[in-house]
Amino acid sequence: MSINIDNLLTLLQDALERDDFDSAIQIIEALRGPDQAVLFDELEEDEQKELLPKLKKEISADIIEDLDDPEAVKLVASLPLETIIQIVDEMEPDEAADLLGDMSDEQSQALLTRLHDADEVRPLLLYSDESAGGLMTSEFLSLRPLMTAYEATEVLRDWHPDAEEIYYLFVADDEKKLVGIVGLRALILADPKTLIKEIMNKDVIFVRVDIDQEEAARTMAHYDLAGIPVVDDENRLVGVITHDDIVDVLEEEATEDVYRLSNISDNELDPDSPIKEQLRGRLPWLYLNTITALFGAWVISNYEHVIAQAAVLAIFQSVVAGQGGNTASQNIAMAVRALATEEVSARAQRKIIIRQFFTGLLLGVAIGSVVAFGVYLWRGNIYLSFVLGLALVANLSFGSMIGVLVPLGLDKLGVDPALASSVLVTAATDSLGFFIFLSLAAYFLQEIQ
Amino acid sequence: MSINIDNLLTLLQDALERDDFDSAIQIIEALRGPDQAVLFDELEEDEQKELLPKLKKEISADIIEDLDDPEAVKLVASLPLETIIQIVDEMEPDEAADLLGDMSDEQSQALLTRLHDADEVRPLLLYSDESAGGLMTSEFLSLRPLMTAYEATEVLRDWHPDAEEIYYLFVADDEKKLVGIVGLRALILADPKTLIKEIMNKDVIFVRVDIDQEEAARTMAHYDLAGIPVVDDENRLVGVITHDDIVDVLEEEATEDVYRLSNISDNELDPDSPIKEQLRGRLPWLYLNTITALFGAWVISNYEHVIAQAAVLAIFQSVVAGQGGNTASQNIAMAVRALATEEVSARAQRKIIIRQFFTGLLLGVAIGSVVAFGVYLWRGNIYLSFVLGLALVANLSFGSMIGVLVPLGLDKLGVDPALASSVLVTAATDSLGFFIFLSLAAYFLQEIQ
Question: How many Å is the maximal CA-CA distance in chain A?
Fold first, then answer.
């Protein structure tokens, strides 16, 4: 973040062009891990393939961990098996499992038979990428309740995880069931002879291995935890999720919300993703939107004879439809974020629906009266202004209501409210906007012509 | 998250109605801190005012910390000064400073003269809410390089912060300048006689007190830190930001992105915010959108005579404008998230612009050809279909380009790309969509009529 990528990239690429790998390696090694990955990511594919095998294996492992999954798989696949094994052995088990999970079955099986850490990685492959199990690492230290603080310290001394930081020590009984948690501070301050069960906290907050990763992240965020233990259905400790993972999950979920609200179905899509992926992630929703737009067109077509007599209506019909849609979008955005970041109780829902009806009504009056007045000044027809103003009031009230009812309803049905809200709601505000405005105008057609 | 709010709320409200405060307090105390706040937040205002002074002061403090700032200020203002002082003294200094910062100057001055922890809170009041200084806590443990590990442990023993967890110990020299960081694990494993300077890590990642909170959060997320030291412009350690704060910041920023893309100017707005706040946060943007919609209407009005001769054009004009807007929204969403979550190098920008031009062109061909074919089946006029298809290709290509150029341009100007992108871009795709379609149609008017 504080490094100047563009400058370093030039230096690095110059070195690679001269085949001066010593300098290239020095440039990379001078950076901190995450910055190494940022810089490496900017290289061309052939430069990456050339440089990666020449770096220290720990550094290659860190870089691979920080790359996007599809990119990492592609890059790793280009290396000799021996090199891959050395690199993957240096990766954190959860990252290694993610990588293997994205490889072909043959490749991952071939790797698993040769990895030193295969026993740590294998169980992680069982869990879905989107679950707590897919997020956790199997590298954790598990103490016994009857150990002394001194013994625990010795266990800690002998433990050298690939991830450097630890935040909590977990306590499990003979059946591996999670029974407590010990903070490092408590361990430091304890008399060496104290038993772990005396300093452990028995009120452990944990998650089950099969719950959705977002729920795990929200639980950690809710309780301000730096790490959370993950247990199987018999309450046995199977892994740990740490704070850096939840940041990734929450960012991912935020991006998903933004994307779904903007009708992009592929969360991995970047502005610079290949054109093929762009089309795949965007075209289906655009087709769906086109169908709803054509439905709106059909609504208008029922008033073709009215428009033929008063073409002025064609000028203003989109204002009614559009402002209803904009009002609804505001409500969808608020509802989606509220449902994503907090519990919305039944009582809060009733309050929301009532508030949003009145808000929509007032927004409609505010926008409708100004537009009516402005259009009267422009076109000088009081009936047109009246019809336009009234249609705006009606469509904004409707838009505001449906803009909360649809996301709340989808959420109740277990569908992500961000997913379909904007298509459904825009279809409704468009069609209804056209219908209200044109049917009112048809009624006053004599006066508007 | 796992608690059933609705049930507990009924129990709690029943107890309060019976004036059975012992039961009410028991219900609250049975919960963990963050859950106490969730439940408390659901109570009516008068119930909150009645219950809060009766809870233990540490519990009241935790609850106040977790409430939204305006709500917390309002609630605290209703309590007697003596109670407020007791509660605020139990709060973490950064939370106390946030609360005081939102109070009137008189109120906060009155409190500061009476608080025990005033010295910890006062310096925090100097920093903007949006800066690293506004986010940090002044509760941190600072060791000296020449202390032994044993002495450090004794310092740790005597230290009882309001926040319970600590992740790092910081090392400062005689001038309070930050010189190193010690993990708790290193302290546990060190021989008691080892000097701190021998086990500390000198490569400390830190942020300056005046940088934006989002940059501080991104730095922590980038380097996977559970805490980051904050220094003043002379490199003196003044505070610490912990991982739970960055989750809040990143969630806030994500909400801000979603809101700004949906034209809501107030990040604090909830679906159940008071109607007055709804109007204040939403009406200005709706007015701005209305102006751009009226500009679109003006574009159409130049073709009123054309539409009077071929009312069928009124049916399809919005399809062209709308699909251009939808395509552009997809690009805005991707550009905004990319700019928010990562560095976008100059090279990546060029790649993005080229890719998005071709993506828009292909999306235009895909949508344009299907719509042209469908409309030919419906209306049987090949010229209308041709004009519609061509206008869609043009407007989708244009929408795709402007959908990345505007956010990238705003970012370069130092304006948040989420803020104005959607209004500017929709105005452009609407007006241009109407213009292309209607001017092409005017050219083929004889054949379309």
Answer: 97
Cβ <8 Å between A254 and B259: no
Q: How far apart (Å, rounded) are the C-alpha atoms in residues A233 and A254? A: 29
Q: Which residues of A touch B335 (CB under 8 A)?
A: 271
Q: Any residues with CB less than 8 A from the CB of B438 and at least 6 apart, and which?
A: B299, B300, B302, B303, B306, B307, B313, B317
Tell me if ipTM is over 0.85: no
Is the CB of residue B295 less than 8 Å from the CB of residue B427? yes
Domains, chain A, in order of start with CATH, read: 5-126 (1.25.60.10), 142-251 (3.10.580.10), 275-448 (1.10.357.20)
Does the distance separating the beta carbons of B270 and A359 come in below 8 Å? no
Least Cα distance to A257 among A328, A322, A338, A325 occurs for A338
Cα(A356)–Cα(A34) distance, integer angstroms: 45
Instruction: Answer yes or no: are the C-beta atoms of A58 and A90 closer than 8 Å.
Output: yes
Overall pTM > 0.80: yes
Q: What is the pLDDT of residues A382-415, one digit of tens each?
A: 999 999 999 999 999 999 999 999 999 999 998 8
Q: What does the alpha-carbon distance between residue A447 and residue A77 come to, in Å, rounded to a whole number?
A: 73
Minimal CA–CA distance to A238: which of A268, A207, A270?
A207
Give the gap in angstroms from C-alpha A229 to the nearest C-alpha of chain B: 16
Average pLDDT per block of 10 residues along chain B, 449 residues long: 74 92 91 89 89 91 86 87 90 88 86 86 86 89 93 89 76 94 89 94 93 91 90 93 87 88 87 90 93 94 94 95 94 91 80 93 96 95 96 96 94 86 90 96 90
> Which residues of B are less than 8 Å from A205 in CB distance?
32
State whether A317 and B314 contact (CB < 8 Å): yes
CA distance A345 to B8: 12
Contact (CB, 8 A) for B73 and B66: no
- CA–CA–CA angle B382, B387, B391 (5° rounding): 150
Q: What is the pLDDT of residues A237-277, one digit of tens each?
A: 999 998 888 888 888 888 888 999 998 988 888 888 889 99
Candidates B314, B332, B355; nearest CB to A307:
B314
How far is A29 from A27, CA to CA, in rounded Å?
Answer: 6
For residues A142 and B353, give the distance between their C-alpha atoms in angstroms, rounded to a whole number: 51
CA of B202: how far to CAs of A318, B142, B303, in Å? 63, 14, 71
